[in-house]
Design a protein that fits this description.
Elements (H helix, E strand, L loop, with lengths): L2 H12 L4 H14 L7 H17 L5 H12 L3 E3 L13 E3 L4
Parallel strand pairs: 1-2
Helix pairs in contact: 1-2, 3-4
Length: about 100
């Protein structure tokens, strides 16, 4: 999973009413799905995609932009049940396992 996704999940676990249980579940998930680090290729992808979306007048949220850029840079398919914003990103391979 993208390190940005992991960060968002960690944030949710930290503020959870059941923090300990949520952090344990997150640790279990991290054992099943490794956190993929970002490098300069991800940053380059972020800059390119952000400019493209801004020029098109279709920007997306900052964390979603980083997640999309991460998937693009590594030529991975992004799995999400919230695809509305991600669909604006050109060349992004996207799949929704819920619908």
């Amino acid at each position: 999973m993208s390190l940005v996704t992991f960060g968002e999940l960690r944030y949710g676990a930290e503020k959870s009413q059941q923090r300990t249980k949520a952090l344990e579940a997150l640790d279990h998930l991290r054992g099943l799905i490794p956190v993929i680090p970002a490098d300069s290729a991800v940053a380059e992808s972020y800059g390119t995609v952000r400019v493209h979306l801004e020029r098109a007048g279709t920007p997306i949220g900052n964390n979603d932009l980083w997640i999309a850029a991460h998937a693009l840079a590594l030529n991975l398919t992004l799995i999400s049940n919230s695809t509305r914003e991600f669909e604006r990103v050109p060349r992004l391979k996207l799949d929704n396992w819920v619908d």
